[in-house]
Design a protein that fits this description.
It comes from Kribbella sandramycini. GO terms for molecular function: ATP binding; ATP hydrolysis activity. With 321 residues, the protein is α/β, with parallel strands linked by helices. The chain is 35% helix and 26% strand. Helix 5 (111-119) packs across helix 6. Adenosine-5'-triphosphate binds at residues 31, 36, 54, 56-62.
């Protein structure tokens, strides 16, 4: 059976590879003369929730389209659930769930009927470990659409429609789920409800989730790990806490001496302030210490990138892989 065959193939590459849902080595993508991905190396263990961030045009959608098997690549190695997506067969595809940026099909279908109908495709891909698909009622309960069971898809609100998109993406109980900018256009309440849904999904049967977002706060809330893509490469990778430490950078210390404003930068803000007091005593005033947050660094990066002033990860101070 093809599923067993792909698992065996994964196993042959060693136990570590079998634990990876996604692996790319030197992934490159060029559109015409434009290099969009310039060597992306990414390993995502099974069960991880990973957020891919980056400014407009950084290549997030290109990356996930390559991982989904919708787009060919220019160079590099890619394995998704142990298989090269370019060769992914229908058994492989049945293990991958996709929620695209906007999906407006099936408007005249009623929610329960649609989920039941789409779910039937997955029945032949059921395995002893993972029976497929979700029953329509169970799925509506999971995504919070039970009250809309008989509503037509075209009549749902934006937030409800997005939940239906997610239900369609997971109806086949995927091992790996791609969510491309899942909360664009949501009001704060819909966003909050969607975050709770993603947490529920992440806890289900070890589902690996890769989502893209422009919102660092959302990435922190939802994911185990944040990867920032810019200039065609991964320029930061880690948990929110790890990234915070990586980009801690220098503190800015503002003060005045006898009414004269000053600004210093220092690695150790406390030691610097102690020294200022020792040097200036009572003449020191208006003291302010500002440590850049991950958000500060990310926003600087986005502004620089979008203004075309910054294209290379290695030139941004304080941010490392
Ligand atoms: N089919 C295509 N042909 C030519 N260029 C393309 C194509 N698709 C994307 N691009 C270009 O590749 C770059 C990366 O696009 P991509 O959509 O992957 O970025 P993104 O990070 O998802 O952006 P956004 O945050 O705006 O969705 C952009 O400059 C885009 O114009």
């Amino acid at each position: 059976m093809a599923v067993a065959a792909s698992r065996t193939a994964t196993g042959n590459e060693g136990a570590a590879a079998a634990e990876l849902a996604i692996e790319t080595v030197g992934l490159r993508m060029r559109y015409g003369a434009k290099d969009v991905l310039r060597g992306v190396d990414l390993q995502v263990p099974r069960g991880q929730v990973i957020a891919l961030l980056g400014p407009n045009g950084a290549g997030k959608t290109t990356t996930i389209e390559i991982l989904e098997g919708f787009r060919g690549r220019s160079a590099g190695e890619v394995r998704v659930l142990g298989v090269d997506p370019a060769d992914g067969d229908e058994y492989w595809r049945a293990r991958v769930g996709i929620v695209l940026q906007s999906w407006r099909d099936h408007g005249t279908w009623r929610v329960r009927d649609l989920l039941h109908q789409l779910g039937r495709y997955y029945t032949p891909f059921s395995t002893p470990e993972r029976s497929k698909p979700y029953g329509a009622d169970e799925l509506m309960e999971l995504v919070g659409l039970t009250a809309q069971a008989t509503a037509r898809a075209g009549s749902l609100s934006g937030g409800q429609r997005r939940r239906l998109d997610v239900a369609i993406g997971i109806v086949g109980k995927p091992d790996l789920l791609f969510l491309d900018e899942p909360t664009v256009g949501f009001d704060p309440q819909a966003r909050q409800e969607f975050h709770e849904l993603v947490h529920r999904l992440a806890n289900l049967e070890e589902t690996t989730i890769l989502l893209t977002t422009h919102d660092l706060e959302e990435a922190e809330k939802l994911s185990d790990r944040i990867v920032i893509l810019a200039g065609g490469k991964i320029m930061a990778d880690g948990t929110a806490a790890e990234l915070g430490r990586q980009v801690a950078g220098q503190a800015e210390i503002k003060y005045s001496v006898a009414g004269q404003a000053q600004v210093d930068h220092a690695d150790d803000a406390t030691a610097h302030v102690r020294e200022l007091f020792a040097r200036h005593g009572d003449a020191l005033g208006d003291l302010e210490v500002h440590k850049p947050t991950l958000e500060d660094i990310y926003m600087t990066l986005v502004r620089e990138f979008e203004a075309g002033r910054w294209t290379d990860a290695s030139t941004l101070p304080g941010v490392t892989r």
